[in-house]
Amino acid sequence: MITKETLANYIRRALPDADVTVTDKTGMMDHFIVRVVSNQFKDKSLLDRNRLVYQALSEPMQDGRIHAAEIKTDVPNPS
Q1: Which terminus has fewer CB within 10 Å in the chain: N or C?
Q2: Average pLDDT over residues 20-33
Q3: What is the pTM of this model?
Q4: Are 75 and 38 in contact (CB under 8 A)?
């Protein structure tokens, strides 16, 4: 099991500017919806964006703390 904050911290280590929102999808703390907004996604394909997030979560995914993650990525809206 992994907390939402710990999961978000894994992503923030890889993408320091990221705004991360984590939702527990099933109530079991192993299936998540993760929304990540980062300037580092600018000019990247959806596949490349997801790769960055999955790489950040590789440790908890490999050790089984995360069973599934639905990833949603975006760039910040211009002000």
Answers
A1: C
A2: 95
A3: 0.92
A4: yes
Q: The domain that contains 22 carries what CATH number?
A: 3.30.300.90
Phi, psi of 31 (to 5 degrees): -125, 120
The band of 1, judged by pLDDT with boundaries at 50, 70 and 90, is confident
Determine the structural domain holding residue 56 and report its residue range: 4-74
Q: Buried b vs exposed e over 51-75: b needs ≥16 C-beta within 10 Å? A: ebbeebbeebbeeebbeebebebee
Instruction: Name the H helices within 1-79.
Output: 4-14, 46-56, 58-62
